[in-house]
């Protein structure tokens, strides 16, 4: 397990967004892409931690073919998120127009249900989403 994964508590809790709309402010496209990339990097780190936890469990229990295919989907999803984050990072370096073009943060997170994601897109600190070990909330 990586040092970063060891330092983070693994969480699987989802946080619902508030029902009221929070007005957004304009940010550069580059700034917005940087924030989205950060979110993807964090999600990738969480998925890698989850993979490690699953791997630890799988070594103790025999799993069938169907479960193995599901675990391979977890690995594939992790790799896709990592690849998309890399592409966004590359895009932010390639285009100079994105350094001045602006978008509304409210438009960016329209339809996004996770309040933590909305907060990051608005430029606020993400809330602490760590939980004591052994606590898992899927919904």
TrEMBL record:
<protein>
    <submittedName>
        <fullName>Uncharacterized protein</fullName>
    </submittedName>
</protein>
<feature type="compositionally biased region" description="Basic and acidic residues">
    <location>
        <begin position="1"/>
        <end position="12"/>
    </location>
</feature>
<feature type="region of interest" description="Disordered">
    <location>
        <begin position="1"/>
        <end position="21"/>
    </location>
</feature>
């Amino acid at each position: 397990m990586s040092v970063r994964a060891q330092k983070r508590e693994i969480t699987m809790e989802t946080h619902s967004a508030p029902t009221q709309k929070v007005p957004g402010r304009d940010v550069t496209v580059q700034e917005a892409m940087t924030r989205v990339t950060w979110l993807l990097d964090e999600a990738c780190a969480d998925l890698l931690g989850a993979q490690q936890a699953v791997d630890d469990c799988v070594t103790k229990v025999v799993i069938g073919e169907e479960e193995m295919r599901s675990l391979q989907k977890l690995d594939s999803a992790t790799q896709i998120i990592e690849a998309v984050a890399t592409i966004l990072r590359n895009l932010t370096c390639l285009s100079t127009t994105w350094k001045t073009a602006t978008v509304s943060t409210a438009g960016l997170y329209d339809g996004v249900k996770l309040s933590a994601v909305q907060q990051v897109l608005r430029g606020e600190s993400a809330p602490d989403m760590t939980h004591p070990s052994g606590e898992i909330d899927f919904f």
